[in-house]
Design goal:
Ferritin, disordered N terminus, about 230 residues, single chain, mainly alpha, globular
């Protein structure tokens, strides 16, 4: 199977790292650039959330989180430059290399659709669905980033170390968001937390359906039943 087949579903860093080992340099660059763009998009969304939540403590948390994501975007840009490539704007409709990549981009776009508008003031009923989506993004990113870190350990330890710093931050983000969601569920928001999680799970299910369709199309093309794309 073509190692750039978008239908691949990687659940562990080990599986993902093995997948990356067969990928071309250009495709790796595309992935790293997509990480850079996703970090910057997530940062902007968190900035909006920090400015619209009615809880001052949450506002501070979200602002710190946004600053981390901005830093990560800069780090991925530096990694690209170290590899000899300048950061670039992604295509409007990228051909996602992995289901994980599609989930990250689609989930960030879903967040944008339900994000408050600057000037609004919102409570937990609006915050919970957004943070649940961010939790899904962070979890996916941790698998992807760790796989990339492993593939750079021997080739470029400096890059591997930088990605390790990003992973440490993302691990903290995933932990604090999970703690908040569990806390709110125990404080009377259990139905809202459950509904948000179910909606997020449904999004992943749809992405897996997309992956299965993509895989079947690749199989039919390999068998000569469909024209090459």
């Amino acid at each position: 199977m073509d190692p750039t087949d978008a239908a691949h579903v990687m659940q562990t860093p080990e599986e993902y790292a093995d997948f990356l080992s067969g990928m071309s340099f250009d495709k790796r660059i595309e992935m790293i650039n997509s990480f850079r763009c996703a970090e910057l998009q997530g940062a902007e969304e968190l900035r909006v959330l920090s400015e619209t939540t009615d809880d001052p403590d949450l506002a501070k948390k979200f602002a710190r989180h946004a600053a981390d994501e901005e830093k990560h975007g800069a780090y991925f840009g530096e990694i690209m430059q170290r590899l000899g490539v300048e950061p670039f704007d992604p295509p409007d409709e990228p051909d996602h290399i992995t289901i994980g990549g599609r989930l990250i981009v689609d989930t960030l776009n879903d967040i944008e659709e339900i994000l408050p508008t600057r000037g609004e003031t919102v409570g937990l009923d609006r915050v919970i669905p957004i943070l649940t989506l961010f939790q899904a993004v962070e979890s996916r990113a941790l698998v992807s980033f760790e796989a990339h870190r492993r593939t750079f350990e021997a080739a470029d330890p400096v890059i591997a170390e930088r990605i390790g710093e990003i992973i440490a931050d993302e691990s903290h983000h995933a932990a604090y968001v999970r703690t908040l969601l569990d806390q709110w569920a125990a404080e009377g928001w259990a139905d809202e937390v459950k509904a948000a999680q179910e909606a997020t799970d449904a999004r992943e299910g749809k992405a897996r359906e997309w992956a299965a369709e993509r895989l079947e199309a690749e199989r039919l093309r390999d068998a000569g039943a469909l024209p090459a794309s």
